[in-house]
Amino acid sequence: MDQDKLNAVLGRFVDDLGATMAAGGIVVGHRLGLYKALAEGPATPDELAERTRTSPRYVAEWLRAQAAGGYAEFDAASGTFSLSEEQAFVLTDPDGAVYTPGAFVLALGALRAESQITDSFRTGAGMGWHEHHDDVPLGCEMFFRPGYIANLVPTWIPALDGVEAKLTAGARVADVGCGLGASTVLLAQAFPKSTFTGSDYHAESIELARKRAADAGVEDRTTFDVASAKDFPGHDLDLVATFDCLHDMGDPVATARHVRESIAPDGTWLIVEPYATDTVAGNLNPVGRAYYGFSTFLCVPTALSQEGGYALGAQAGEAAIREVVTEAGFTRFRRAAETPFNNVFEARP
């Protein structure tokens, strides 16, 4: 046995064990406002506990774990903990360009289904989105929404051929698989002359989407329907969008055909998918690792719970998406933009 290789595996184990437990601590910090309070200035455990009306002994242990994991700074001379500007940036603002606690809410929500997923390995059965813990849809919104805030209106829409001008003038838009409506609301806020219809098969998500739209003041130009991706409402649409959800569908080709039937002759289908290459080897990196993990617990089980026989998974890659789009009758397909976490595709009739 190669001792260096063994030590490398053990080192990975220690890192992963610490990261697994850190996920719980990050969610605790999110729920109790500990990061936001610490961002106000350096604090001892007693001081942070007073700011947040929490138990000093628990806060002390939490702070030590945060510092050990690189999510907080510790000054031994004063016994205080603090957040750097960069740590505060990614840990304290749910409306910012990055909000990492949301990813951990999603991850812990997904892991609650470990026993069911273990059984699914034995049987091949699926597990629908609606069967997961409530933290899955809530965490999903928190995970993806910051990226949409940073990219959807500023860069993704302008990257599409002629779409920004249509939205500005007034267009009809369908947001398919909208979840809690984060993308729908952002578009409605940016383009007040356009109308938007969000749809999702998960009734509880649609209920929250309606509330999100009302809270944002865009309920007058947004509607939300409980509908599958194969029968969402609307016709002669200028834009159809699917955000990080096509790979979750049991029959993405049927969805693509319905999109093709629903859009105008000069309409556009915006397809946002997790960043991936076309090969397994090309996805063996930190981003691919995270997405393959989520896909094992969420994406593949969700697809297998539906009719259709597909299970693209979160790392399907451009070639697989192109094949789905082309089979459905679209004649134009291109990658319009990308980020470290997303590929953005444009399909036209």
From TrEMBL:
<dbReference type="GO" id="GO:0032259">
    <property type="term" value="P:methylation"/>
</dbReference>
<dbReference type="InterPro" id="IPR048711">
    <property type="entry name" value="WHD_Rv2258c"/>
</dbReference>
<dbReference type="GO" id="GO:0008168">
    <property type="term" value="F:methyltransferase activity"/>
</dbReference>
<feature type="domain" description="S-adenosylmethionine-dependent methyltransferase Rv2258c-like winged HTH">
    <location>
        <begin position="26"/>
        <end position="92"/>
    </location>
</feature>
<dbReference type="InterPro" id="IPR036390">
    <property type="entry name" value="WH_DNA-bd_sf"/>
</dbReference>
<dbReference type="InterPro" id="IPR029063">
    <property type="entry name" value="SAM-dependent_MTases_sf"/>
</dbReference>
<feature type="domain" description="Methyltransferase">
    <location>
        <begin position="168"/>
        <end position="280"/>
    </location>
</feature>
<dbReference type="InterPro" id="IPR036388">
    <property type="entry name" value="WH-like_DNA-bd_sf"/>
</dbReference>
<protein>
    <submittedName>
        <fullName>Class I SAM-dependent methyltransferase</fullName>
        <ecNumber>2.1.-.-</ecNumber>
    </submittedName>
</protein>
<dbReference type="InterPro" id="IPR025714">
    <property type="entry name" value="Methyltranfer_dom"/>
</dbReference>
<keyword id="KW-0808">Transferase</keyword>
<dbReference type="InterPro" id="IPR053173">
    <property type="entry name" value="SAM-binding_MTase"/>
</dbReference>
<keyword id="KW-0489">Methyltransferase</keyword>
<dbReference type="Pfam" id="PF13847">
    <property type="entry name" value="Methyltransf_31"/>
</dbReference>
<dbReference type="Pfam" id="PF21320">
    <property type="entry name" value="WHD_Rv2258c"/>
</dbReference>
